[in-house]
């Protein structure tokens, strides 16, 4: 009988934190008028989420990809 703490899974907690950060960043971009960066976030998220078939792992990958793309791509367009 396994009496360890193996039933604890921090995956949903990490997923929730990343999703909250992603939504908070998108809200900040919406309220501060950073339209290009917001459009990049939404576009990358929808593309990656649809490519992964709408799964939990796909949502996590989509949010991380959107956060990274929204951070780096607008800096490249400014140059």
How would you sum up this structure in a few lines?
The protein is an all-alpha fold. The protein has three helices and no strands.
Mean pLDDT: 84
What is the string of helix and strand elements?
HHH
Distance between the termini: 61 Å
The parts where pLDDT drops under 50 for at least 5 residues are none
- Quantity of strands, as a count: 0
Question: What's the gyration radius in Å?
Answer: 16 Å
Helix/strand-derived category reads mainly alpha
If helices are DSSP runs of H or I spanning 4 or more residues, what is the number of helices?
3
**Approximate shape:** elongated
Helix content range: over 70%
Main sheet record: none
Please state roughly what percent of the residues sit in beta strands, choosing from under 5%, 5-15%, 15-25%, 25-35%, 35-45% or over 45%.
under 5%
Write the layout of secondary structure elements.
Elements (H helix, E strand, L loop, with lengths): L10 H22 L2 H17 L4 H23 L1
Helix pairs in contact: 1-3, 2-3
What features would you highlight for this structure?
single chain; 79 residues; mainly alpha; 78% helix; elongated
